[in-house]
Amino acid sequence: MTKRHLDVVETYRTVPEDFVKHLIGTLVIVTAAVLLASLLFGVPEKPPLTIQSYAATHPLAFEQVALNALDGQGAIASYGPPYNHGSASVQTGLQQAVGVIHPLHANTAFVLKPLAMAAAINPSLRPALRAFNQASLAQQVRWEAAFGGALTKGTYQNGLVATPTANDGPLPALMNAMLQLGRSGLLSGALIRNPAIVTRFDNQNYLLFLQGTPLQTAPATQAMLGSNWGIIHPAVNGYPGAWWMTIPTWIYQWSFVANNAAADALALSIGFLFWMILALAPWIPGLNRLPRYLGVHRLIWKAFYREHENPAPGSDRKEPRHAS
């Protein structure tokens, strides 16, 4: 018989131990170490891009975002499945096959519904909102086009956006009301309210409101767009970025992925395939033999294998018990 199959458990002395004491002690030590490390080496928090901050710092651009949601020109208003039947961001037939599973009418959800909530506590807003809602679709389109042209020449004065006189009906008043909602932080609350869901809030509209120009401009100033591997760049200079996302980001740099209209679908599919290979590795013939072929475990435990494969003369170690 050989000693290489010696049962390791039989070669060590066992003693009573308080496992709970060790568990709690380890938890306390690790928690203290993490808190101390975060104080000494933690990355400063980058101020988040919020609806309120964007309205306060970019009032004219904010009104343009609201107008785009109202007239159907916004990133989400014309996005396509799963939000609506648009085609602006449709990548594959698979996306169209899924269909509209999260229906979203941007003009109502992003603008008219929040304004209706504001009008409930601010009666002065009701005439302008009523005039817009009662106008024909053609009239609304003319007002929106006129206000869009005037907004390009607008100025910000005393907390309001002033635009040149145009045939834009009640839109100057409505857009300034939207701006006030945004600056006050109340728009965020209005967007997450869903009367159909009593026990929780619905964050969909809040997350989607700034899609498009606002969320493209902010990362561009930090070289964090997808075209420059932005996800692994630091949000705060001098600190490391999300380096662990290198492999998923790398997939997007493959030419057949980067130049494909369905880049997201391809990247996710490839990533899922890698995950499945790793998850099923113990059952994949050949792949499940790699640990034995590579012998990494023998490098880690080389002292143990050296001792038990070539035992010292006169060793009194017990022979392993094997069936004859």
Write a short abstract of this structure.
By secondary structure, the protein is mostly helical. The chain contains 17 helices and two strands. Helices cover 52% and strands 2% of the residues.
Outline the fold blueprint.
Elements: H1 19-41, H2 51-57, H3 59-71, H4 93-98, H5 106-121, H6 126-134, H7 137-151, E1 155-157, E2 160-162, H8 171-184, H9 186-192, H10 204-208, H11 213-220, H12 246-253, H13 255-258, H14 263-279, H15 290-294, H16 296-300, H17 302-309
Antiparallel strand pairs: 1-2
Q: What brief labels describe this structure?
A:
single chain; 324 residues; mainly alpha; 3 domains; two-stranded antiparallel sheet; 17 helices; 52% helix; 2% strand; disordered C terminus
Strand percent estimate: under 5%
Q: What is the number of beta strands?
A: 2
Count of domains: 3
Shape: elongated
Structural class: mainly alpha
Radius of gyration: 31 Å
- Uncertain residue ranges: 319-324
Number of helices: 17
**Strand line-up of the largest beta sheet:** 1-2
Distance between the termini: 9 Å
Mean pLDDT: 86
The helix content, as a percent range, equals 40-55%
Helix and strand sequence: HHHHHHHEEHHHHHHHHHH
Major sheet size, sense and barrel closure: 2 strands, antiparallel
